[in-house]
Amino acid sequence: MTPNDPWFTCLPSCEARVPCGNGLHVVRWEGGSLVLTEHPDAEGELVLAALGGEKAGCVELAEIWGRHVADLSVLAIGPRGPADEIKVSWDDVAAGGPGVHAGPVAFTVSRHPLARPALASPPGSVPPRIAAMRQQMQRQAEWARVRRNDMLSLLALGYGFQVRLCGQVAAAHADRLDDAAVRPALIAAMTGRLAPAAERWLGIDPDQVVVSLHREATWGSVELTGRGSGRRLRVALPPAWLSRVWACGLALVGGHLVVAVERAGWPTARVLGLRAPGAEPVPLEVHGSAGPGDAPHWET
Amino acid sequence: MDRERAETYLRLLAEKGLAAKDAWHTLRVVALALTATEALEDGTAEAIMADFDLAMNVRRQRTGHDPAAGWPAGGVAQAAIRAAGARIRSAHPPAPGQVAPGLLAPGQVAPGWPRPGRHYPATARPGPAQTPPGPAPGGAAGPAAQDAAGPERFIPVGRTIPFTDGIIADGVYLMAYAQTAAGARFTAGWRTHVLRTGPPYFGVCTVTDDRGRRYQLDFAGHGGGYGWGGVLMLSPDPAPDARWLEISAPGGPAVRIGLDPSSGVAATVSQASISAGEHLLTMIAERLLALAPDFPHEPGPVSPGLSAMAAGLSEVVAALEAAELLAPLSPLPGWLATVCANLRIDAPGLTAPPALDLPEQWLSLLAHYHRRKPGTAPAREGYAALAGALPEVDGIRLAFLGLENVEGRTVLHVLARGLAREFRHGPCGIDLGFPLSVWIGDGGGRWHLGHHPYDRHPDGGEDVLQLQLTPPLPRSAAWVEVLAAGRSARARARLPLRWGSL
User: Fold this and answer.
1) Whole-model pTM?
2) Residue B73, pLDDT above cutoff 70
3) How far apart are CA A195 and CA B346, in angstroms?
4) Angle between helices B313-322 and B23-36 (to 10 degrees)
5) A108, A112, A191 member nearest B12 (Cβ)
6) Which residues of B are less than 8 Å from A76 in CB distance?
7) Interface pTM (ipTM) of the complex?
8) Residue A105: which of B53, B221, B223 has the nearest Cβ?
């Protein structure tokens, strides 16, 4: 199923207030785009900033958003559902994050972990290799700091923006099934979001949910196999499920696991829902209303 | 190897870990295992861990790690654990009269340590046929070792240079002489009358050869307490045909050291072919075997310290299997489970069936742990002349250059060529920069594990290592069998020992 309508058609707009200058400005997500309501000429401001002027907080945020609309880390860090509460305040952003440690993570240790051996000759200056290594570590630390600040800024926008950014990232990679560099992250992102929904749907342990990426033009498959500890809910869905279904708050509606959107729209849409594993999905007319945290609430 | 499945496994583990309180350590161990086996690139693993770290932090949950410790906590953690082990040992001295052992199958729990049990013969596992001998380990290393500086020389020395400075007790004992493309050096050790004094300035020693050329000595090594050990580097390098060197300390007599290569002893090489996953599990198992003496008297049926070291092992095995680095019928998970059971390591999830056909060397060490009599006097102190090189194993060539029994430990001096330039820790604190198993057979059927105590230092493209032997080698040994095993081969040779008095 490859509908032509945009993935976000089932999502209403949402707003957040962000620090900008000496006050708070409204930033709006609408139709898949970020709108800076107080900066009608954001591009012009960017040019001025490039010439040495001060960059407005809203404009900086828009840049950050743009840097991460295809960043799979957003799926690894962002929310798995409305119950997955992520609390980041603008104060946290200013402070560098809640309890986040300050260096890049690294596997290689290039220095000797114990004391230097005793040498009769005096130590020389720092070898070029070590100096280059230090510089590289400093660059990595700076890169990690910027990246962490970016993520915290995006998360500080609140759940509505978080989930919409996740949808945008998922949509950016939905047709990259042939790319082995993308599939592991997509499988993990799908598993992390489908398993809680499956738990609410069937009462199954989330660890027993096995997700694979569905490649065909059909909706996919959902099967329950095994017993006891060997019980598995095996789900094969296209990665577009993340953006078109989950990000729009449609994963579970009226006791049905929604596997696809047939006709997108807000506040009314038609979806394909499963009543039980192994069954054929049935079309459902669903109606949305604004829920807490800018998450749509859908009912059949 | 399936890299995609490896990455997927780690990412799914991270997903699962978001709901756990202490998943960070397990995730890190698995990430280290997958990068160690090259199933996952460092950058990918680092990105996954960084995302997980931030994901946990923004959910305001405990990540189970000390953020201040950062990522590569191996060295620091090792030091802390060793210190803890030392404290535990001193706080819980062994009760006299406790005797031996039993080999436990996985799932069985040892009620105490040590405990009575049965005897296990050290039976060798059948291995692949041996190939013809490699280059001679003693003396000149053969045509392959020829270079512009002449043939390599590894010569047992066993001479003492008398010192009269009032600090060094009984002189400096020279264990072996090695001359390679990286230079010429003696391995040496000495005891001092004074606690924690520095090494003497060896530049005042007089060194000449049979042609009247003079040489300078410079020391690099380690000391602490009353003992020092390391290498005395010679500059310039002696000529390839130099027949002897005479060394004297100020006011002391000259001691002549012959440089004729000793008669070569044949080394044997047997081909091996184990997967990267099996190799990694072997290194982990031997790491645990080496660390066991640090945690011998923790109360209870489970060793908390060792169990902490082994945390995440079952996930490592699962990850290696997922990445197709470990065949479903591989004996390694069973061997590892058996080692864990016998070392009182709580390894939940390591459910491989019991394996009693452990490698001969592992059995020997486990049997030692089980039968060890608390309060046994440490091996008598002394140094032993020993020299010989093994053929390359996995691109690494080891030359053995002396043994010392000091302060209850046996240290094997090794010169290594071909090691990675960077230190790199793997899961459970293994040193990926030294990916070989080194075992020393003492001629009495017992094997001693040479483990790397993180004190190697580079010496012109080669590394001088001091491997600690567990258990210490008795001074009754007149020869040793050295064994180095890697993924592709196992090399072994028998080398005579000549113990010197201090």
Assistant:
1) 0.81
2) no
3) 30
4) 40
5) A191
6) 11, 14, 48, 51-52, 55
7) 0.89
8) B53
